[in-house]
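# nightly structure sweep
# worker-07 picked up a monomer target from the shared queue
# config: single-sequence mode, recycle default, output format = C-alpha cells
# input follows
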Amino acid sequence: MFAQIVNDMFVLGIPVLEKILRPLIIYLFLVIGLRLSGKRELASLNPFDLVVLLTLSNTVQNAIIGNDNSVTGGIIGATALLLINYLVLRFLYTNPKIDRIVEGTPELLVDKGKIILPQMKKQMITQHELEIAANKQGFISLDQIERAEIEPDGAIFFAEKEPTPDEAHHQQVMDRLDRIERQLDALRGSQRV
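# output follows
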C-alpha cells in the first residue's frame, strides 16, 4: 500500500522532457494570447475577464501536466514555468528593443484635452471607464485632463491641464478676495467683543 502511494506521488507518468516542453509551449501561447488581447485585459479585471482567466488556467492545466498527476511531475512543471519566466524576463531586460515589441508602448487616449475615440475603441475602453480611472486618480472630470495614455501594463496615466494665464489670474483674484473676506469677518468678530 505504502509503495503504491509513493509510486503515485513521485514516479512520473510521462518523460521529463515532455514535462518541460508542455509548460514552455503553454507559456508562449498565453504570453502571445494575452498580448494580442490588448492592454485593457491587463489593466483591471471585470467579472467577465476574471471568469476568462480562471477558466483559462483550468483549461491549460491538463496541457501542462499531461496524464501525470504526481508530485514530482507538478514540481518539474512548476519549476519549468518559473525558469522559463525568469529566462524570458532576463532576455527582455537585456534587449530593450525586443521588450518594447513584446510588451508594447504607451498609447494616447486623450491628447490636448480631446478624447481620441479610435484609440479608445481599439483599446476597448469606454468613456465611462476612462472617467472612473480618472476619478480614482483624483480628477473630478475628464475636462481636467490634458493627456491620458494607457501603459503597456494596462495602467492609465493622466496629466492635468495647466490653467491658462486668465484662469490663473482669476484664481489669484479669488484667493485674494477670500483672504479679504476672512480678514473682514475677523475684524467684525473682534468689534463685537
